[in-house]
Amino acid sequence: MYEREIKELQCKLLTTTAECDTIKSAFQALIGVLKLLEDTDHYCLQESTSKRVQLSKDKYPGLHFQVWSDYDSFAMSPEAQSMDCGKAPWLEQANGNLITANQLRPICASLQHAWAELVQCKLAPQTWTKISTMVKSLVYKIMVKEHPLLGLNKDGFKLEMLCVNNYSGWCKNHLTLDGEWKEPSHKTEPKEEPKLEYTDIVSPLAMKGNKCESNPKLV
Q: Cα dihedral angle (114, 192, 199, 33), rounded to 10 degrees?
């Protein structure tokens, strides 16, 4: 009576096990390519990356945006709308100074490199909102390791905003609907590589009168 159900469950188990092994192999390959620590483990990655910089007023007295709501309040203030805050006004140095365009460029380059490695390992989603928690946590670990200022927040919103505002455009320019690299076209002029810092990143003026629908968290 139950033989058929047992066989179906066994088939599902084999399929799930195979998928899990594929993801684990891709994960380990990605760690190797990006030269992360050998003790990086996909089971404990979320827990380890959640231990972000412990912010305190004594250690970072000049830091303005420790959580998303800090930036949200600033973005809609009269002060913000009279200032030139740059292309990513939520990113700041440890002393609270805004980062410059020259400081932003290597951050954008590192982020695009991380996305490219996700494509190579078959882990890249079509939209950033569909990325798995594990992979998102891995990207966080990679980026904060290379650019510690991205970790100067309690909820991960600084890196999340860069990804949310730019991943879809990058994906559209470089990937097919199946998540594969697009074939180069010889019939048209090649597109200039989009500069991440000049895309539709949220600015204080753009946020005037708009409330954030949710509090974006990395993990």
A: 0
Q: What is the secondary structure of 117-144 as a DSSP string?
A: HHHHTT---SSGGGS-HHHHHHHHHHHH
In terms of DSSP H, where are the helices of 52-179? Answer: 68-75, 78-81, 101-120, 133-146, 157-174
The 10s digit of each residue's pLDDT in 83-129 is 777 789 999 999 999 899 999 999 999 999 999 999 988 889 889 99
Nearby residues of 94 by Cβ (< 8 Å), 6 or more positions away? 60, 62, 63, 149, 152
CB contact at 8 A, 134 and 28: no
> Maximum distance among all alpha carbons in the chain?
75
Distance of CA 214 to the CA centre of its chain: 16
* pTM, entire model: 0.65
Cα–Cα distance measured from residue 7 to residue 189, given in angstroms and rounded to the nearest whole number? 55
Task: Name 106's Cβ contacts closer than 8 Å, sequence gap at least 6.
Answer: 147
Helices and strands in the chain, H and E counts: 7, 0
Report the alpha-carbon distance of residue 55 to residue 67 in Å, rounded: 10
One-letter amino acid at 127 equals T
